[in-house]
Design goal:
The chain is of the alpha/beta class. The protein contains 10 helices and 8 strands. The chain folds into 2 domains: 198 residues, Spore Coat Polysaccharide Biosynthesis Protein SpsA, Chain A, CATH 3.90.550; 73 residues. 44% of the residues lie in helices and 17% in strands.
Length: 301
């Protein structure tokens, strides 16, 4: 993602060996996943100085589960959205570095150690990893892992344009300087928006594929269509709001539909995956179309 940026308007904080770290978990109805995530965080080779769980108006047993652990729990009375939950963690975090894990992820035992080691580089403002491939016998989950995984690939990128929100970290001071996450992004896109803003401000974001998390989400066809639609819509909106024409993303979505459909047949020899590619791929294109027309409607109101 080519984004013009300048390094003249800031000074990256120098590396300190005693950097403190806060792990933040934004959570909305994540009771089915929280215990495994929290258990894994207490088994890390490098322990966090604090763990914050932001209960974003959950209606399940999230609060009761979190209260069984020695972590800080902050409750929203209503569901305010993902970006707002990230900001609540940011404003309340005590650490120099804030590490975000989505509630339905499972990090490797060395994840926190690997993340913090990257901050030895004083130019590094943010560090993130990828969603690992998770085999599944359920076709929609297999499709998501094959074709909609949150990753930049298997090669390290020292200065990428954005980090995947499900496994990302930032120097707290820099996030505060940028005013935190844009709370208009209720479900998706806040990571894209923040990545572009960091990049345009001249901050370096390191993508390290060895820092991986399992994504324990399980979809139906209906929820997968919704996921892909929302990702596409809000990614396009984040690009547009940051003065980047997202038209290339429409071309990418169309190309990707044909590639995923062809791969389903030729490589995986699976007609069900082929059908899912056509249906879900169309929702990605639809998300970008509707974002475009809603933006035009706003312009010409």
């Amino acid at each position: 993602m080519p984004v013009e940026h300048s390094r003249d308007n800031h000074q990256t904080p120098p590396f300190r060996k005693d950097l403190s770290v806060t792990i933040a978990i934004p959570c909305y109805n994540g009771a089915n996943f929280l215990s495994n995530l929290l258990d894994s965080l207490f088994r890390q080779t490098k322990l966090a100085d604090e763990i914050l769980v932001i209960n974003d108006g959950s209606t399940d047993a999230t609060r009761q589960i979190v209260q069984q652990y020695e972590v800080r729990l902050i409750n929203h009375n209503t569901n305010l959205g993902l970006a707002c939950a990230r900001n609540t963690a940011l404003w309340n975090a005590k650490g120099d570095v804030i590490v975000y894990f989505d509630a339905d992820t499972l990090p490797h035992p060395r994840s926190l150690e690997q993340i913090l080691s990257e901050y030895r580089n004083p130019e590094t403002a943010a560090v993130g990893g990828q969603e690992l491939f998770t085999p599944s016998s359920k076709k929609v989950n297999l499709w998501r892992n094959l074709f909609w995984r949150q990753t930049h690939g298997e090669k390290r990128i020292d200065d990428t344009w954005m980090l995947m929100g499900l496994c990302s970290s930032y120097r707290k001071k820099i996030l505060m300087e940028l005013g935190g996450f844009d709370e208009d992004y209720k479900t998706n896109g806040e990571d894209v928006d923040m990545g572009i803003r960091l990049h345009k401000a001249g901050y370096q974001q390191a993508y390290v594929p060895q820092i991986g998390v399992l994504h324990r989400r399980s979809d139906s066809l209906k929820t997968l269509i919704s996921l892909v639609y929302r990702h596409s819509y809000w990614q396009s909106r984040a690009l547009r709001r940051n003065d980047i024409n997202p038209s290339f993303q429409m071309q990418t979505s169309i190309k990707w539909l044909f590639i995923s459909a062809a791969s389903s047949v030729r490589r995986h020899k699976d007609f069900i995956l082929f059908l899912i590619s056509l249906i879900v791929g169309s929702s990605a294109i639809m998300g970008r179309f509707i974002e475009f027309f809603s933006w035009k409607k706003r312009d010409f109101g």
